[in-house]
Amino acid sequence: MNKPEKTKLIVYTDGAARGNPGPGGYGAVLIYGDKQLEISEGFRNTTNNRMELMAVIEALKKLKRINMDIAVYTDSKYVCDAVNKGWLKSWIKTGFKDKKNVDLWKQFLELAQLHHISFHWVKGHDGNVYNERCDVLATTAADNYPTKIDIGYESGK
Q1: Fewer CB within 10 A of the end CB, N or C, for the chain?
Q2: Catalytic residue check, 125
Q3: Active-site residue 120, yes or no?
Q4: What integer pLDDT is reported at residue 5 of this predicted model?
């Protein structure tokens, strides 16, 4: 008898910033089997790249188990390429010298070590239902006069 295939968590993410920098937000859709969870949040002043990465981080923070197989789908070349092309490993070796968003990358690394994560780039605004939904979540969060402070951005770290 064959073992049933392990269910993989699918995560779609997107980030937005009006003015870049400006009011921003992230959105994520987590799909596990027949269950689905949407998350989003807005910040009063941030950047698009920070929100793209924040979406991944906040999705990972929602997980109650460790050692999960996770496929992250993002339209962010910044996030996807940093992981898939080895940029992040180089940044770690240089102590993130002259790199932005170090606070978020360190959060990501801490959370990522708990799981098996693959990153997949999807073209934005190209009809992918979940990518489009994440865009709506992110832009709505950015457009609703957010007051939450992105401490890492506003402190200049």
Answers
A1: N
A2: yes
A3: no
A4: 57
